[in-house]
What we know:
The protein is mostly helical. The protein has helices spanning about 15-40, 55-85, and strands at about 50, 55. A two-stranded antiparallel ribbon has the order 1-2. Helix 1 runs antiparallel to helix 2 (about 55-85). The longest helix has about 30 residues, at about 55-85.
Amino acid sequence: MGHGPAVKLGKDNAAGYKSKLGVTMFIVYTLTYFGFVVINAVNPALMEKVYFGQTIAVLYGFFLIIFAFVLAIIYNHFCIAAEARLNYWW
């Protein structure tokens, strides 16, 4: 015994906008992560330097995690706004 969808699904007029935004944010995050990889490959000694009691590797790693979370919040905000603007007529 199962159940159907919780809501009726219809056409999402904001899908194109959300896709472009998601791809753009993915590219931004990928370039940021690529910087981490390049530093480790080209100058690993730089990652051993200590600032604020932690190595740059640890600080950059935490930055990547927090940055991903911030991007997710921004993406959610803009997607909700786009859905409200493009999917409803009131």
